[in-house]
Amino acid sequence: MTRRGIREGRDTQAPDAEGFDVEEVLALVNDGKGPARPAGDPVPGRTAARTEGAAPTHGPRTREAAASPADRHGHRHHATPWPEARTVAAHAARSQAARRAPVSVTLGDALGLVLAGPLTALTDLPSFDTSAMDGWAVAGPGPWRVRDEGVLAGSTAPEPLADGEAVRIATGARIPPDTTAVLRSEHGRTDAQGRLHPTRDMSHGQDIRPRGQECRSGDQLLPAGAVVTPAVLGLAAAAGYDTLSAVPRPRAEVLVLGDELLTEGRPHDGLIRDALGPMLPPWLRALGAEVVAVRRIGDDEKALHKAVSRSSADLILTTGGTASGPVDHVHPVLRRVGAELLVDGVQARPGHPMLLARTKDEQHLVGLPGNPLAAVSGLLTLAEPLLRTLSARPAPERYGMPLRDEVHGHPHDTRLVPVVLRGDHVVPLHYNGPAMLRGVAAADALAVVPPGGARAGQRAELLDLPWATAGVAACFT
């Protein structure tokens, strides 16, 4: 069974609470008048997110949402349950999305964007009666006299046919006036006098595509919110478009932290290769973002503060520095710029110290852990829902499949485990530690394993990896 068949026909679950109508986002994008929620206002129906440095607001919490130990600055982090963290991330950028005006882009630049308005036909399709096959356009019953000249696609309007007359015609060519049918090349023969005879019965209008068969000018072809695929580009071109009105790509900037990171060569003398710098930009592009910069900051608080405060990106991603070690500078920098912490730690393994902050009215920062698989966890938990909102993409339909093998869980936290699809089951992969990429490099998806683990045969929710669903080339271009 194909992945699409699995998603459409197996273990489909109700839409995730983090999703909301694409039309709602597009309406806000198009009129730019969405109600901007003041920084610090809680998501409706949810407990207010804690702002760093302020007294925590305690609402109903699960027993797992216990405070973690205080960091070196004396601030305690209250980890958010994994499903709630995704919901907060999806809702955090709604007012930001409302202020994003649509852009006009050429068809060559529109792939992967979301239509900001309906795609309506600018012409009838086809715009004139055309031949559906190579053969002869004929008038009346046969046999027919065949004209010397033929009719090719793109030629000027042909002369009308008289009864008993035929003319050679190519696929896509304009039908001569008074034509009654098209006789396919393989269904006709000529006699010694050069007259054309049918070799099988014909019907009136056979193999003629009438004007407007596919659509009439003004018909809606696709609704606002449709993702521009290669097929959509073809349809838009056929319907007469040179440009499309689309939701602009969110602009993302990646700040790679850590003095121990090498950009080339083999690890040596306590230094390691930077895996996130090469991995994150194409992954962000696959999530619909435009990566405007990748900067290497090292363990330098002043440089990090300068980079964050001067960035004009919609989303800043940092790698590492989110915990409470002596060179973990993300929290101090967020306090210096007056950021509002929306998520400060997530009950997820790997990736527990990930965070989400609003740094400006129209800018957010996602702090990813430094371990590679933990960073992937943070990317899919916090960055993906936020970018989806900014680009007006619909939330993916939740689905799950049975696990072939038992997966051990964390007592209180959700685990994200790389898996491969094998028939009607998914197989958990080894090498799934926080610092490992070997498992996810071979994976089709990440399985969401609830606290306590999952037994063999138990269905697990799956998070698709973009290259596994669209193909590497289609995904990252």
Descriptive account of the structure:
By secondary structure, the protein is α/β, with parallel strands linked by helices. 22% of the residues lie in helices and 25% in strands. The chain is built from twelve helices and 30 strands. A hairpin with a 2-residue loop joins strand 27 and strand 28 (425-428). Helix 3 (82-92) crosses helix 9 (372-391) and helix 7 crosses helix 8 (330-336).
Number of strands: 30
Q: What form results from the Cα inertia axes? A: elongated
Q: What is the strand content?
A: 25-35%
Give me the Rg, rounded.
29 Å
- Biggest sheet layout: 7 strands, mixed
- Percentage of residues in helical conformation: 10-25%
Note poorly predicted spans: 8-21, 31-69, 71-75, 471-477
From the N-terminal CA to the C-terminal CA, the straight-line distance is 27 Å
Mean pLDDT: 84
Q: How many DSSP helices?
A: 12
Short description:
It contains twelve helices and 30 strands. The protein has 477 residues and is of the alpha/beta class. Strands 3, 23, 26, 27, 28, 29 and 30 form a seven-stranded mixed beta sheet that branches. Strands 20-17-21-25-24-22 form a six-stranded mixed beta sheet, sandwiched between helices.
